[in-house]
Amino acid sequence: MSEMPWTGERLVTSIVNMHGSLEHLHRYALAIQISNDKVVLDIASGEGYGSNLIKEVAAKVYGVDISEEAVFHAQKKYNRENLEFKIGSTSKIPLDDSSVEVVISFETLEHHDEHNEMMNEIKRVLKPGGILLISSPEKINYSKRDPDNTFHIKELELEGFSTLLESNFKNVKIYDQRLVYGSIISSHHNAVGFSFFDGDYYSIVNTIKDVSEKYNDTLHNKPYFNLALASDADLNFIALPDTSFFNGVEIINKEKEDLNIALKNVHESYSDLHRNYDELNRRYQEVSNNYQVMNNSYQEFIKQSQINFLKIKNSHSYRIGNILVKPFSAFRSLLKTNANFI
């Protein structure tokens, strides 16, 4: 089936890029970790790929989105027994009270300003002790990366994000998500903990350095998204790692492959244009040559006609004829003169 058009905001599976695809897939990788045998709500499910990923481990997944186009597309593309897509909004979720065990909400808060209403609805559909995994752009950093996003209504800074969740859930655990490129080394068996290293040939530090001003880089190594795990139950029993890493090699290679295909298409288009130009130029030269031949023939004809005319004019026959017709010319002139006097 045909893919959904890309609006520039909602991620669709025809779009593959490092920051958009990688960040979204990493978040859904975490969602899968807490959805095993659970009834899950993916609010603002969009194209539906995320709900489809979760359904592999969940007992049941509901994908809810305000867009009829997105819901109808998802229903056709991801027609699975334990996956159901519904039309609804964050302030009016089409599910019964206490009907789900996990709610997933990725990049939803910023698209509206009914944040408290959204929290009330999530609490309503969550079973007691249910879990919310939610993310939203970090306003301070994200506004530099995407300053003119007309789809975002109300972005939150970390403090506002934390306050919203802590006022609705007894327990909240905050994460941040940043886009990095690097290498990871871990123990082959039962790795414990995770350390960040940064540096160059001259210095290595046990943290991620902010080099945005040094290199005018507003994209990398900054937490562009805040994530949170929230519940009224104890979060220590939730099997979600404190730190995780999503491998971007597949995405990088796919993006490279797409770029190579696009480059090949451009090259082929250029070759076609060059061939068309050569053909048009050949035809132009052919027409130009034909015109030159015809023009030369015409000039030769004019030249020959002038020569022939001079030959005729200088011939004895022409002179004798001219002498013979002069009396008649004079007589005709006389007749015209007399006619004017009548």
**Cross-sheet strand order for the largest sheet:** 3-2-1-4-5-9-6
CATH topology of the domain at 18-180 and 219-247: Rossmann fold
Structural class call reads: alpha/beta
Question: Any idea what the radius of gyration is?
Answer: 41 Å
Amino- and carboxy-terminal Cα gap: 99 Å
CATH hierarchy, class of the domain at 18-180 and 219-247: Alpha Beta
Provide a descriptive summary of the structure in words.
The chain is α/β, with parallel strands linked by helices. It is built from nine helices and nine strands. The model has no long low-confidence stretch (mean pLDDT 82).
How would you briefly describe this protein structure?
With 342 residues, the chain is of the alpha/beta class.
Write the layout of secondary structure elements.
Blueprint: H1 18-33, E1 39-43, H2 49-54, E2 60-65, H3 68-77, E3 83-87, E4 100-106, H4 115-125, E5 126-137, H5 139-145, H6 158-166, E6 171-178, E7 198-199, E8 204-205, H7 212-215, E9 223-231, H8 249-313, H9 316-341
Parallel strand pairs: 1-2, 1-4, 2-3, 4-5
Antiparallel strand pairs: 5-9, 6-9, 7-8
